[in-house]
Specification:
Elements (H helix, E strand, L loop, with lengths): L1 H28 L4 E8 L4 H16 L4 E8 L4 H13 L4 E10 L1 H7 L3 E4 L4 E3 L13 H16 L5 H8 L17 E3 H6 L5 E2 L3 H7 L6 E4 L4 H9 L4 H17 L6 H19 L5 H16 L7 H16 L4 H25 L35 E4 L6 E6 L2 E7 L9 E8 L2 E6 L1
Parallel strand pairs: 1-2, 1-8, 2-3, 3-4, 3-5, 4-7, 11-13
Antiparallel strand pairs: 5-6, 9-10, 9-12, 10-11, 12-13
Length: about 450
């Protein structure tokens, strides 16, 4: 009887437990939807591009249900924007661009490549003309490519391309949206919704998730790592010439300083930071660092093996390594010229103002001189013979021998011919050279 009751109790517990276990499994299977928030902030450049690409790959690995690209940027590099756009186009995950204040220039282009766009009230999107490093309009080829990209980005998601083109081409006339001919189009939130460039407005993330029917979703916020943030700073177009200038100043000062000190450490650190930032940003590889080291070694070898060939190869290797590590040849060229000008200026100041000399040459160049002031005499000067008379022992034609105060002396005339046995007068003594004339 006891066994029977125990058996019945065991069955009852199993049934009850099965309900709990079954409910738990269903909850696990029907887990919350996952939303990936990726921030796209500040200047668009290669470092940001690498971060966005990494984030999308991570979202794909976690099989999230939605990627939300939170945008607030004034724009930036075209090539970096195109890389980001390619990453958005190729992923199978749905992407929503959430313009949280501004998506200007390259930011507008990136937003257009998302599946849908939401904007905060008072947000702005547009002003996407392509310009060069000096702020001038780019050449026709670059402009044509950019307009084609803007048009394609709008059309692929069913948006009217004329507004995208008006953001990049001032010749398109849209006065009703504040972009008469000669002006670039910048859409405010209400205008973007009106023309179909935004699906709606959302005042914040919570509001956006509600509008996307994802208010119950699990939120995953991805942040830039310290290395990525640092790489973005190092690869900024303004920071690169500053970094190279600091490096050149440090190395130049080190050449004029004894030993290896703070200046040399500062210079090498700046160069290492340059390559480190570009490696993390995906711009440089070890080949550029190896080429720089080889170039620097050849440049040092030139001091010990004169000829100019090693120095030329070393200088070329250093310059080439910097270009290889860069994604923009023009910008890198300008940065190198700035650093070169700074290095020359520093050298002139050290030599002319502070009277410095390169210490590296002190061990290779003999600077001591055997002068009279130091007690060195190459030949005895016979000044005591000046004014004395004697007899030409040989014919002077114009050099020969004379007897002066009972001493045989090698003499030379002032250019004339003096016969043997004639009387002579010493008129000058220049070291071992005794000059006489006939009297």
């Amino acid at each position: 009887m006891l066994k029977k009751r125990f058996f019945q109790l065991a069955i009852l517990c199993s049934v009850v437990l099965s309900f709990f276990v079954g409910d738990h499994l269903n909850t696990t299977a029907a887990s919350k939807e996952k939303v990936f928030f990726i921030p796209l902030e500040e200047t668009v450049e290669k470092g940001l591009s690498q971060f966005i690409q990494r984030s999308i790959k991570e979202a794909e690995a976690q099989d999230v249900d939605q990627i939300i690209l939170e945008i607030n940027t004034p724009g930036g590099a075209v090539d970096a924007a195109m890389e980001i756009a390619d990453a958005l186009r190729t992923t199978e995950l749905p992407i929503t661009a959430f313009i949280n204040r501004r998506a200007l220039s390259a930011g507008a282009y990136i937003a257009l490549n998302a599946d849908q766009i939401y904007m905060v009230p008072g947000g702005k999107m547009g002003s996407a003309a392509i310009i060069d490093l000096q702020g001038n309009a780019a050449d026709k080829k670059a402009e044509s490519l950019w307009l084609a990209e803007m048009k394609e980005s709008a059309e692929q998601n069913g948006r009217d391309p004329k507004f995208a083109l008006a953001m990049a081409d001032p010749d398109i006339d849209l006065p009703e949206y504040g972009a008469a001919k000669g002006d670039l189009l910048t859409l405010e939130t209400k205008q973007a919704v009106e023309v179909g460039y935004a699906e709606g407005t959302a005042k914040d993330r919570e509001d956006l998730l509600t509008r996307l029917n994802l208010q119950e979703a699990s939120i995953i916020n991805i942040e830039e790592s310290f290395a990525e943030k640092f790489a973005r700073f190092i690869t900024h177009p303004i920071v690169v010439p500053i970094l190279l200038s600091i490096g050149s100043i440090g190395l130049v000062v080190e050449l004029y300083s004894p030993g290896f000190g703070i200046a040399g450490i500062m210079g090498l650190t700046s160069i290492l930071l340059f390559f480190y930032g570009h490696m993390v940003a995906g711009l440089a590889g070890f080949e550029s660092i190896i080429l720089f080291i080889l170039g620097f070694a050849l440049l040092i070898a030139e001091f010990f093996v004169p000829g100019g060939i090693l120095g030329t190869l070393g200088f070329t290797g250093i310059i080439a390594s910097l270009f290889i590590a860069s994604d923009n040849v023009v910008h890198m060229g300008i940065s190198i010229l700035i650093a070169f000008a700074v290095a020359i200026t520093a050298s002139i100041l050290l030599v002319k103002v502070f009277g410095k000399r390169m210490n590296i040459f002190k061990k290779m160049i003999l600077r001591d001189s055997t002068n009279t002031e130091s007690g060195y005499v190459s030949n005895k000067t016979r000044n005591e013979l000046v004014g004395k008379t004697g007899i030409a022992l040989t014919t002077l034609r114009p050099s020969g021998t004379a007897i002066i105060e009972d001493e045989r002396v090698d003499v030379v005339t002032e250019g004339g011919y003096i016969t043997k046995g004639n009387k002579v007068l010493v008129v000058k003594a220049e070291g071992s050279r005794i000059v006489v004339r006939e009297v």
